[in-house]
Protein 1
Amino acid sequence: MFQPDLIVRSQRVVAQGAIRPASIHVHGGKIVGVLGFGDVPAGCPIDDADPGSFQSGVRMIDGTPKPSYAAYQLPIWVTKKGNNVHIYGQVRPAADSAALSVDVQHASSAGSGFTTVQTVAVSSLKGQFTVDLPDPGGGVWRLRWNNLTSRQAGVGS
């Protein structure tokens, strides 16, 4: 096992549906483990968080969505693929294996109006999909499903 870059620990960590003392192990900027409060490798930097609580995830302890919650529900990632853009998306709120349709929308720039380029049928276990579409030469993309809208994403953002 590798040495974490940082340990963030608190007496009140919200994790796995409970509030408990824990140490959050971070490596390369990502959480790689949530272990017991005293589970700290020798020589690893420790950040003792506010004794109130440390809340990882996309909801506050009372269930209120954090600012990142909308992006979590409909993640989108856009990459360049030849003369096309390759779009990865997911509909996390959908039931497993639900048959649904997602609108893939494009705007010529941030702040411009969006138009639906294609409606994609999705039926994978966890609502994931990819689609290749002609590259209009810039602009931003987003997903729409029911009353949810994803973040705006350009190529590589």
Protein 2
Amino acid sequence: MLPNALSHCLNDRTEYGVIGVIGQLPRRGRRRPSYLYSMTLPTVKGEARERILLAAEELMAKHGVDGVSARSINAAAGVSAGILHYHFGGLDKVVDALLERHMMPLMAQRRAMYDSLQAQPQVTLRAVVEILVIPLARKIIEEGSAGARYVQFLARLHTDRNPKIARIFEQSFGGNSSALVEMLQRILPEIPMRVLWLRLIVCSHAMLQSLAEISARSQLPIPPGNPPREQVLWDQVEILIEFLCGGLAAPTNLHS
């Protein structure tokens, strides 16, 4: 949802002059995201930046970074041409801004979970997998559409093998990703390191794509008589955690 400031936009001076309705209505078959319909109104100072981020996150989640342009984001956000470059300098900086706005809380949660594990006399495989899954699952379940958009955006970056994914993994654990792998190796000493690394790659892809699917379902109506939405979503997360644990711990015929 957009900040309440949008309801007062008509009575305020705009940051770049009166924007008004941008060009013509979208062509038939090209529907804007529902939360962008009101975005052709004038903007209060600073509102254009938030519009651009919301539009970029939505479009990049659907089409990938390479599938969108500054022009298409400006149009979807309902702002004048050139505003994206004014605020960010280019698409790459928009991606950075989208990652950074969500990354700090995720980093804090994962670091706290990791520190808690280090203090335990015995660490389970499930506890390590939960470090990967639970913070993102909370975004979907507790933050609604905003969390869902971010997880879908992150999954698309991973699918497109965007080079920023490696930095995201490192930052998520404060540069401690190698320690996390070492922890997994202590839990699964029978799995060779080269096999464990490949399984982690497969599991990270399965995790992000599954969470993106869960996030899409989180926006659908719950039929009458079904359990509450939150319970349904956490049940799906539980299935994902069990699946990832099974994949990482499965016996292997490959040995060093």
Protein 3
Amino acid sequence: MTLPSRSPAPPRRTKRVIDAKSVFDELEPEGIAPADESWQERKRSEFRIAVLEAAMTCLAESGYAKTTTELIAAKARVSRGTMLHRFPTRQALIEAAMEYAFFKRMQNLVTALNALTEDERVQQNLGIVRSWEQYSSSSYRAYLELHIASKSDEELRKVFIPRAKLYDRIWRREIFRFFPEWSKDKETLDRCSEFVRAALEGLALNSDVWDDPEHLQTVIQLVADTAIALRDKSLKLRKPKTKPAKSRG
């Protein structure tokens, strides 16, 4: 008796799930995790998250100048008086929303990267596509709005820049855990990461001006192909021949 032939098994979708709890702990804003398991603590945490989500959305949709405590309370559907008991001033609320936006950016990115299979990450380089998808999130748009506003608001800048540098330090420290195929060339990965972020932020800023989804996807693919070429050494970093001008801050 001849047995029927079996179809070849589909390739396994292996994933490397990174435990990023330590990363989240460093960026997690105070008060969004309940201090204990009591009902009161859960409600306090839920209230804080609702207000910070609303503040982040207001920053993303209405901009820094128009994000008032009245607008945030209305968006969160909470009493403005109760909200001001937790966040006494607009500045305190904006600072808390800023910390929350950085936390959510990292959380969303890590979740997206952890969902990639080995083939998707290494061969297809879909980490860049997943990164690009985060640039339409309210957490990124709130970050961008705060970054732009901080250039002319000295009080905001004093709190924004240290937090942005903390985020950057953590990502540089952790990036090899997510892209181990780069582990033998830290400098190239650092420069490639900077290039990718600069390119994607430029796309995010100009996508509504260019208004051409096909060209946008072509540029994203160009960024991904450039990153692969750097990783595989078919494209090498070139040191500048002249010293860069000093930054004016």
Protein 4
Amino acid sequence: MHHPGSGVQKIDAGFSLKAVMAITALSRRQLVYWRQTGLVVPSRQTSGGHWRYDFTDLIALRAAKRLLDSGVSLNRLRRNIDALRKFLPNARHPLTELSIVATGEVLLVFRAGSAFEAVSGQEWILPVAELERDIERLTGGADSPVQGELFATSGEAAGTAGGPPGGQRRGRRQAQGQP
């Protein structure tokens, strides 16, 4: 049974508080506090009034916990989530609908091929190719990583997955008489 305007379904299915504590390693106190303050509110409630979490709620809880574990304070996380709800009114559940990454003092949100700061909404442009050109220009190309090497897995960087991504570049340097 769905109560209009509340956003909460009255149903006896879903994950109990005890189950959610076991799944997420969050304490009862954290879960209750997050519900009371609106950070993550369970989507369901039993006919007896007990809260039940659905799978999407579990994703939101894990995302919040991961951000907290990476050093984001609860207050900062809450400010960022509130700002995202204002900037993106269609994103009713930012922790499950958006990719949020902590980068030092900034929470970056990745959505639809762009990155922006959660609080200000300012778009971030990551000019990796431009940075690579600047490094090559300043160093003369010696030992400068190429974009593919920066994002390669350790096996790829070691050349075990078809050779290093910068292999063609090294070949060009050698063909030009450079080491």
